Amino acid sequence: MLLLAIDTSGRQGSIALARVEERVKDSDIPEEFEIIEIMPLVGGTFSAQLIPQISTLISSNGYTKEAIGGLAVVSGPGSFTGLRVGLAAVKALGEILAKPIAAVSMLEVIAFASGAQGKIMSALDAGRSEIYAGKYEIPATENAVREEILNLSGLLAEAKGWAVVTPDVTIAEAARDAGLSVITLRPISSADVARIGWAKIRSGDTVTPDQLEANYIRRTDAEILEKKS
């Protein structure tokens, strides 16, 4: 089957088309997972680009949207506007195609993209001198221990005894200077999202279009102002 993965959570985004073949039970044929193509999205214009680029990605590889068997999308954390654009597109496709949807946390993607096991703390720049952080124990039945937003000193305190995994060089250097175990990743792409998404779909960890929601972690400015008033 084909899997479409979408990431519009950051300044730059991407979409990926993957071909997956699940291993038949009691068969010696191994499972196949192949990224067919990754298409970049330029930040700031996701709303104008996303649907046309999805159409181009599918058709240029000789398929129609009906060939899509599953959808994976980053549900957060990240840009409020970017996340809404990606989730709206997947909701619409999910309704039209009636296919399973995997909602993927970017912090989860970071943790599993490292290939490390044990106590993993994902870290991602959240702007405003804050950091998105997620604790994962890999492998485990319940992967996510906690996801939250911290300042740098809070991250360094929370990360004692955990391996810090991040694509952000500044965070990596600070954690390394604090004597922590650090794994610095290359930039995350929708290909990584596709791999985590497929694992979720295969295990039945999916949502319906009406259940798909953003995981902002940080409150919106409107919510902050409302609380202050």
Order of helix and strand elements from N to C terminus = EEEHEHEHEEEHEHEHH
Runs in which pLDDT lies below 50 for 5 or more consecutive residues are 220-229
Q: How can the largest sheet be summarized? A: 5 strands, mixed
From the alpha-carbon coordinates, what is the Rg to the nearest angstrom? 18 Å
Number of domains: 2
CATH C-level name of the largest domain:
Alpha Beta
CATH architecture call of the largest domain = 2-Layer Sandwich
Gross morphology: globular
In CATH, the homologous superfamily of the largest domain goes by the name: ATPase, nucleotide binding domain
Q: Total strand count, please?
A: 10
Number of helical elements: 7
Distance between the termini: 51 Å
Rounded mean pLDDT is 89
Strand order of the largest sheet: 3-2-1-4-5
Concise account of the structure shown:
With 229 residues, the chain is an alpha/beta fold. The chain folds into two domains: 2-105 and 188-217, 2-Layer Sandwich (Nucleotidyltransferase, domain 5), CATH 3.30.420.40; 115-184, Nucleotidyltransferase, domain 5 (2-Layer Sandwich), CATH 3.30.420.
Keywords, please?
single chain, 229 residues, alpha/beta, Nucleotidyltransferase, domain 5, five-stranded mixed beta sheet, 10 strands, 34% helix, 32% strand, globular, disordered C terminus
Describe the protein's architecture and organization.
By secondary structure, the chain is α/β, with parallel strands linked by helices. The protein has 2 domains: 2-105 and 188-217, Nucleotidyltransferase, domain 5, CATH 3.30.420; 115-184, ATPase, nucleotide binding domain (Nucleotidyltransferase, domain 5, 2-Layer Sandwich). It is built from 7 helices and 10 strands. It has helices spanning 46-60, 80-97, 106-113, 152-158, 169-177, 190-203, 221-228, and strands at 2-7, 13-21, 32-41, 68-76, 101-105, 118-127, 130-138, 144-150, 163-166, 181-184. It has a 5-stranded mixed sheet with strand order 3-2-1-4-5, sandwiched between helices. Strands 8-7-6-9-10 form a 5-stranded mixed sheet, with helices on both faces. A hairpin with a 5-residue loop joins strand 1 (2-7) and strand 2. Helix 1 crosses helix 2. The longest helix is centred in the middle third of the chain and has 18 residues, at 80-97. Mean pLDDT is 89; it is low at 220-229.
